[in-house]
Amino acid sequence: MKKRVVVLGATGSIGESTLRVARALPNRIEIVGISGGQNVQRLLEIAREFPAARICTGDELGAATLRSELPGREVLHEADGLETLASTPEADLVLVAIVGTAGLKPALRALETDKDLAVASKEILVMAGEQVMATAERMGGRVLPVDSEHNAVFQCLEGQDLSAVKRLILTCSGGPFRKASAADLAMVTPEQALRHPTWSMGRKISIDSATLFNKGLEMIEARWLFNIPMEKIDVVIHPQSIVHSMVEFVDGSIMAQMSSTDMALPIQYALTYPDRYAGPCAPLDLASVRRLDFEEPRTDLFPALELARRAGTAGGTLPAVLNAANESAVEAFLAGRLSFIGIWESVDRAMNEVPFVQHPSLDELIEADHAARSIVVR
Ligand code: NAD
Ligand code: MG
Questions:
Q1: pLDDT mean values, one per 10 residues, the chain (378 residues)
Q2: Residue 371, Cβ neighbours under 10 Å: how many?
Q3: Cα separation, 218 vs 186, whole angstroms
């Protein structure tokens, strides 16, 4: 059966890998919707390649350009357009790969209109995991993880009983500063932080990988995706990024998922689940990898993991505050207005200062998100 897929964030790193999967599996995947932010030129090329797709762009001006280049095609724009695209009647699945929380409302809309959701944007599960999972449950839709760690856990859990799980072990490359000293960290520039050792990704997630907030966000993401308490979620540093994550069971058995460092694999598994096909991901040659290393994370120098554990354990508005403060701090760091260490400090400060609500509504979550951002830019 062909899956009809809407890709939100088609012009980004995950979006382009998704299109690579679609090109390799034309009998399995049909692209019926695409969105892009500011890169109108690339969106136009993608729209020409996938003529069945409805299109949504970042602003009115981009929409006017696309309409004049693609007469007869439906072109939407901005946040409302994203929600309309996410509810495309003929779609089976919506993949959300937009940076930050802009994908939250479209993700909820996709579930509410009876589609499965493939989530790359971890920020939306961190901010509103409870709401997203409850909506999926109510509507009978699936939430399929695209993030490589969660996709690995998802594969390891196939056919297993959750009550037999002792803990999830998320692997973490350690980022570009795995061996840095406290003095080195005080001097980090955006150029250094953007240079990830094993993955090529968008700017926001590359900085998150350098601070380890990426792994912190992933701990909270896992908590919601697999409905598992925070104390059963651990992180181990694995510099080769070959083991994408593991599940330890009560009998002492540990299952791991391995593959080359290519996001095409987890994307494909989410899109074709539960089926497997030969796709674009290169096979893994273990003999050329030669060794797999594992070590403890340095939580003293990288406080992101402990901040995330605190937020995920408390729940309520705290994960949304952590996420929003981090997003805002990363922007400030990339713009040269905040130091690298300032990212952790800003998140800690926002978590201490924004009033806590234990069972927030969606509006209260958005309010907490805004309050956290205003504390960071203050
Ligand atoms: P990216 O910056 O390469 O691409 C982001 C896409 O979203 C682009 O198409 C952009 O035009 C669009 N976009 C950005 N802001 C928008 C807004 N406000 N409204 C509408 N569209 C907007 O990012 P990426 O690396 O592809 O990451 C996307 C998401 O996937 C992030 O949440 C990231 O954490 C997650 N993720 C990425 C990877 C990876 O390997 N790149 C791995 C796991 C998870
Ligand atoms: Mg990941």
A1: 96 98 98 97 98 96 97 96 98 96 96 98 95 97 98 97 97 96 97 91 95 98 97 98 98 98 97 97 96 97 98 97 97 97 98 97 96 91
A2: 18
A3: 25
**Ligand 1 pocket, 123 CB below 6 A?**
yes
What's the pLDDT score for residue 344? 98
Pocket test for ligand 1, best of 98, 172, 220, 373 (most atoms within 8 A of CB): 98
Q: 19, 267 in Cβ contact below 8 A?
A: no
Nearest partner of 277 among 8, 27, 12, 19, judged by Cα: 27
DSSP letters along 10-31, please? TTSHHHHHHHHHHHH-TTTEEE
Radius of gyration of the chain (CA): 20
State the pLDDT at residue 1. Answer: 81
Residue 378 pLDDT: 74
Which tokens in the block code for residue 345? 């400090």
10 Å CB burial of residue 284 (0-12, 13-18, 19+) is: middle
Q: Give the DSSP letter string of 198-230.
A: S----HHHHHHHHHTHHHHHHHHHHHHHTT--G
Contact, 117 vs 96, CB < 8 A? yes
Q: Is 201 in the pocket of ligand 1 (CB under 6 A)?
A: yes
Check pocket membership of 102 for ligand 1, CB cut-off 6 A.
yes
Contact indicator for 324, 373 with CB cutoff of 8 Å? yes
Euclidean distance between CA atoms 346 and 17, whole angstroms: 33
Give the position of tokens 């994408």. 244
Residue type, 24: A
Sorted by sequence, the CB contacts under 8 Å of residue 194 that are 6+ apart come out as 203, 206, 207, 210
Kindly identify the ligand whose nearest atom is closest to the C-alpha of 173: 2
Task: List the domains of the chain with CATH numbers.
Answer: 3-145 (3.40.50.720), 150-314 (no CATH), 315-378 (1.10.1740.10)
Which-ligand-closest: CA of 196?
1
Contacts for 303 with CB less than 8 Å, ≥ 6 apart? 344, 348
Number of neighbours of residue 166 by Cβ within 10 angstroms: 15
The reported pLDDT for the residue numbered 197 is 87
The pLDDT score that the predictor gives to residue 224 is: 97
